[in-house]
Amino acid sequence: MTKMTLGAYPHMLGFEQLERLLERAAKSGNEGYPPFNIEQTSDFSYRITLAVAGFADEDLSITVEDRQLVIRGRQSDDSEGRVFLHRGIAARQFQRSFVLADGVDVGEAVMENGLLHVDLTREKPQSVVQTINIRKG
User: Fold this and answer.
1) What per-residue confidence (pLDDT) applies to 42?
2) Which residue among 47, 66, 75, 123 has its CA within the 20 to 30 Å range from the CA of 96?
C-alpha cells in the first residue's frame, strides 16, 4: 500500500507545508499528561486548558516555535529532607505541543485554580476575488 500525499492531487497546489505540519503533529509525542481541553469560545477564538495542579507560574513556559505552540512544565524537586510514606503526586516534567494554522495567534495565558488557560484567536478570513488578465502571446 502506498502512502497518499497531497502532491498526489494535482488540483491542490501549494499544500506541501500543510502536509509537513500534519506529519509533525502526528510525531509530536504528546502523551496523556497533563490532561487538557480545547474549546471554541467564539467563531474566531479558542481556549486550551491544561490541568497543571502543583505547578507554579515560574515552573511553566509557553513558546511558539515555527507555528507550533509548545507548553512546558518543570517542577523543582523540593523533596530533599522529606520522608514520604506514600508518594502518589508525581513531580514530573511535561511538554505539550499544538500545531497552529496560519492566521492563528496566541493571546494571553492565565493560571487559575491549577488550570492553565491559553487563549488563541484566528483572523477572520477575507473573501478575495482576483481577476487575471490574459495577455496575447
Assistant:
1) 95
2) 123
The answer to the question of residue 8 being in a domain is no
Instruction: Return the CATH number at 110.
Output: 2.60.40.790
* Positive/negative CA dihedral, 102, 23, 109, 57: negative
Query: CA-CA distances (angstroms) from residue 107 to 24, 95, 97, 118?
Result: 23, 19, 16, 7
Q: Please give the grid coordinates belonging to residue 119.
A: 487563549
pLDDT at 27: 65
pLDDT in tens, 20-64: 767 766 665 556 889 999 999 999 999 999 999 889 999 999 999
Global pTM?
0.73
> From residue 94, how far is each of 4, 14, 33, 61, 80 by CA, in Å?
33, 34, 7, 11, 21
* End-to-end Cα distance, the chain: 45
